[in-house]
Amino acid sequence: MKIMICGKGGCGKSTLTVLLAKALTNAGKRVLVVDADESNLCLHRLLGAKQPEIMMDAMGGRQGTREKLKQAKDQDHEDDFFKNIMSVDDLPPDCVQEANGIKLLVVGKIKEFGEGCACMIGGISKAVLSRLHEAKDEIILIDAEAGLEHFGRQVDRGCDMALCVIDPSYESIQMAGRARQIAEAAGVQTYFILNKVEDDVRQVMAESLDPKRVIGAIPRSDTLFIQSLRGQPLSVEMTEIEEACAFLLNYKKPLTLSMKL
């Protein structure tokens, strides 16, 4: 199953991606984390992994990537980056790092002033995810860029679920509602996970959400905050994460998806 983890900037997407990856790995799944956020610089540190070679760099930077994306549209063309049907093991080895049983792929990062927008990074994400076929025991977690632009680029087309992380803010709740509207118009099921909440806040947030779509509510944690602040591997275990993990493990993909994007 491929799960797009999305939400507004600062909602805790990366933190929850790491915590879910660890819980799913402990449950016996093979997990690949895809860092598809061009602005996030520390996901590998939260996983306790070394920074792998960035995929866009390995493809020759923007110029090389442009050519490879063009070639990828040719169904008869295959190379080390874009096979027509790919498994996790087909990903370029230099672009994948592993820590504690979790694999990490970093798609691309904005590095220099004036180098251009992140559209090409979205293009790589879309090309990889649309071709990547996970095995029965594999789960792919995609840490998306903040906001809704990945929907506009159709990066989510190759995903089975959009998991929206919502922090205690009106903007975050509204964005989650829009994300569900866009994703489900494309046939991608959408669920919510609340983050940084206390009981009274959770009740107010839940008033604006379909309770059947909320798979977890993660409380504020000073330990998580300090680990993240220091760029340390996240090591907190939470019952609430285990409950969200159980939902994902028991989730049954719809038999057919009506793709409209």
TrEMBL record:
It comes from Desulfopila aestuarii DSM 18488. InterPro entries: CobQ/CobB/MinD/ParA_Nub-bd_dom, CooC, P-loop_NTPase, ParA/MinD_ATPase. One of its GO terms (molecular function) is ATP binding. This is CO dehydrogenase maturation factor. Pfam families: CbiA. Residues 5-234 form the CobQ/CobB/MinD/ParA nucleotide binding domain. GO terms for cellular component: cytoplasmic side of plasma membrane; cytosol. One of its GO terms (biological process) is negative regulation of cell division. It comes from the Bacteria.
